[in-house]
């Protein structure tokens, strides 16, 4: 029995090495190690009407689990809701069940992703007359940008941060008849923006659980591609807490400004767009800056008079 188990593990490792990280959310990937607990983070402000919240989750790549930040995205069609993916224990492995868009919320393992995803259904809003209404009690909404809002208290019975269903220490939720019916409806796969968002996270080593020890560098974003905005927030937190010195701040801000200049120049040369190669170059430079911010905030150098205290839920 041990020999058979070892062979299965070797086979799975070989398969994982052969499958690109970008494709992992579209297939069932079987892992023997449970995903980390869900980190606690603050939801960014909704960018505007029509955006839907997709919570962050742990995905898996050749180097192990990595965090895909929560992000506001536009649905593929009016009336569609996002059912998050989840990890479930089955047949001796943790298998990832990919998320999807559909007219109703399906089963997502009973995982409490927060912001309306309490483990069952979705309490963050609903479609009415082709317009999405946002529940301000669980969403970070600025009524200047978003006008169709309401307030309804959401009762949460599951405060567990466990990110998987079944197995040792996992959640014990089971799909209801309503959720089973939703799973049989016509679905949309993750949008191209969501796929791109996951691919960027898979290439950022600071998102690896083995590197960040369950506290990802980027936990959430206001929209896909808003890395520069997110990193400015991390720098500001480092300055306020005193974890980043004036010299360290100047260095990373100068590099951010250089990246922004590169993006502007590339867009001007290509009719307002970036080529795939240019996007990869920008992403690599942002990864390097992200790593520098992390190192600056965790080295021995500190500012003697910080301007405040960093929010412990954000890094």
Short note summarizing the structure:
By secondary structure, the chain is α/β, with parallel strands linked by helices.
Mean pLDDT value? 81
Quaternary organisation of the protein chains: single chain
Count of distinct strands = 14
Q: State the distance separating the first and last CA atoms.
A: 44 Å
Strand order of the largest sheet: 1-8-7-13
Which spans have pLDDT < 50 for at least 5 consecutive residues?
1-28, 307-315
Overall body shape: globular
Our count of domains comes out at 2
Q: Please trace the helix and strand order, writing H or E for each element.
A: HEEEEEEEEEEEEEHHHEHHH
Question: If you had to describe this structure to a student in words, what would you say it looks like?
Answer:
This protein has 315 residues and is α/β, with parallel strands linked by helices. The chain folds into 2 domains: 2-191, no CATH class; 227-298, no CATH class. The chain has 7 helices and 14 strands. A 4-stranded mixed beta sheet has the order 1-8-7-13, with no helix packed on it. Strands 2-5-14 form a 3-stranded mixed beta sheet, with no helix packed on it. The longest helix is centred in the last third of the chain and has 24 residues, at 246-269. The N and C termini lie far apart (44 Å). The relative contact order is 0.14.
């Amino acid at each position: 029995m041990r020999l058979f188990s070892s062979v299965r593990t070797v086979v799975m490792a070989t398969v994982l090495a052969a499958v690109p990280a970008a494709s992992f959310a579209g297939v069932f990937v079987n892992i023997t190690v449970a995903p980390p607990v869900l980190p606690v983070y603050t939801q960014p402000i909704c960018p505007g009407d029509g955006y839907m919240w997709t919570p962050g989750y742990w995905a898996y790549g050749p180097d192990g689990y990595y965090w895909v930040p929560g992000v506001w995205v536009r649905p593929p069609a009016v009336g569609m809701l996002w059912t998050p993916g989840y990890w479930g224990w089955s047949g001796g492995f943790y298998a990832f069940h990919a998320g999807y868009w559909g007219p109703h919320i399906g089963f997502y393992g009973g995982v409490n992703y927060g912001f309306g995803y309490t483990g069952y259904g979705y309490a963050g809003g609903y479609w009415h007359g082709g317009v999405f209404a946002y529940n301000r009690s669980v969403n970070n909404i600025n009524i200047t940008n978003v006008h169709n809002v309401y307030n309804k208290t959401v009762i949460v019975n599951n405060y567990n941060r466990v990110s998987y269903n079944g197995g040792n220490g996992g959640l014990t939720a089971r799909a209801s008849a309503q959720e089973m019916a939703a799973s049989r409806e016509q679905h949309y796969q993750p949008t191209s923006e969501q796929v791109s968002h996951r691919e960027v996270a898979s290439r950022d080593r600071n998102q690896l659980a083995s590197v960040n020890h369950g506290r990802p560098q980027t936990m959430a974003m206001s929209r896909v591609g808003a890395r520069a905005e997110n990193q400015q927030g991390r720098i500001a937190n480092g300055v306020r807490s005193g974890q980043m010195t004036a010299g360290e701040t100047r260095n990373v801000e100068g590099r951010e400004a250089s990246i922004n200049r590169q993006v502007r120049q590339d867009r001007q040369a290509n009719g307002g767009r970036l080529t795939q190669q240019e996007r990869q170059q920008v992403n690599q430079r942002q990864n390097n800056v992200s790593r520098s911010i992390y190192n600056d905030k965790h080295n021995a150098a500190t500012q003697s008079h910080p301007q405040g205290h960093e929010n412990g839920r954000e890094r």
